[in-house]
Amino acid sequence: MSDDNVARLLRQHAAKARENCPEIPAKVHPHMLRHSRAMHLYKAGMPLALLSEWLGHADPETTLIYAYADTAMKRQALAKATEGITTNPSAVPIWHNQEDIIQRLCGLKE
What we know:
Elements: H1 3-18, H2 31-43, H3 48-55, H4 60-63, H5 71-81, H6 99-105
């Protein structure tokens, strides 16, 4: 089957599906399937380097066009990074009344 025939069938079925699901974009093309699958794999935890290889990209930077962290992925990463850490909003920070620490943090003191 030719590329053009796949594109035609995809547009035809997308137009029909759009009747029930208006969120389907007006312009649908076969490469969108590749983008979608890449994002599904990335969200499922496939490392970026492996995803790049799976897509056949010679340069991993090309994969960054596809792969972006959505809000859910950012929340999961933050939850994993802070797992087991409890925060106490009333706790006094270690730099409280420690002017030398503040000056070092601001680059005013070595």
